[in-house]
Amino acid sequence: MKKLLFGSLVGMMLLMSACGNSKQIEIGTQTYTDPKIMAHIIETLIEDRTDLEVNITKDIAASPQIISSMEKGDLDIAATLFSGEVYNNHFDDLEFTTDPEETMKKAQEGFKEKYNFKWYDSIGFENAYAIAVSQDIVEQYDPQTISDLKPISDKLRFGTDTSWLERPNDGYRAFKKKYDMSFKEARGMEVRLMYEAIENDELDVITAYTVDPQIRDLNMKILEDNKNFFPPYDASVVATQKVLEEHPKVDKVLQELIGSIDTETMSGLIKKVDIEGKEAKKVAENYLKEQGYLE
């Protein structure tokens, strides 16, 4: 019921925004930081290079809700979707692979055919799921692979972002089955709260995003996915074909972003927001100026 109400409210907000300005581009983002930074990068470039205005809807709970809103016409652009999303129950009988190029091809072809979306080539960074453990666990048990956690899993406190708990094909239930382990407890929460819990010794293991700067700052260790559970998660901008046909200049703007930001660079931008406390919009604008996109 709560999800239904949330979805209805988001839809109403987007509809009211769109009705108020026919030259307004609607961008949606998830709850985490890299899509928010990308949304402001796209916003700034579109408003700099066209006469269009941009509205950003942030903190949409999960990628499938963004895709649904795009399908209904409430959103024009997903600031960032990841290639592994193609395995998240969107298509029947899709063969799983951990090959990045094959996964990207499946995403581009599948979402074009089913939704008439343009899934752009990668922005240049990957933000994959990974299992990371605290420094205390490293010192006590020295795990190298995810399977190394199995003998001690019933002692470990596990944290993950809420959407991963619910993902059918590459989420928590499938993970437990693949690795044949269950944790002492499993808690869903916002990404920033996972790292706070690690720092406060309230969690031992988390699903980290590989681009997160907190992994290094907290001296955490990413374990080898020795059973190849996690798919690739290369980041792309995704747009409806409708908005690109109506506004060809938007396509040119989005093409500029292909291959423009590598994982190390995005990690640095996230750090400015999540750790240094700077506004995502300001971080995006400064980055564009530093890179020569803006005068």
From TrEMBL:
One of its GO terms (cellular component) is ATP-binding cassette (ABC) transporter complex. InterPro entries: ABC_Gly_betaine_transp_sub-bd. It comes from the Bacteria. Pfam families: OpuAC. Keywords: Signal. The keyword Phosphoprotein does not apply. One of its GO terms (molecular function) is transmembrane transporter activity. Residues 1-22 form the signal peptide. The keyword Signal applies. Gene3D superfamilies: Osmoprotection protein (prox), domain 2, Periplasmic binding protein-like II. PROSITE patterns: PROKAR_LIPOPROTEIN (PS51257). Residues 23-290 form the ABC-type glycine betaine transport system substrate-binding domain. Coiled coil: none annotated. This is Substrate-binding region of ABC glycine betaine transporter. It comes from Pontibacillus marinus BH030004 = DSM 16465. The lineage of its organism: Bacteria, Bacillati, Bacillota, Bacilli, Bacillales.
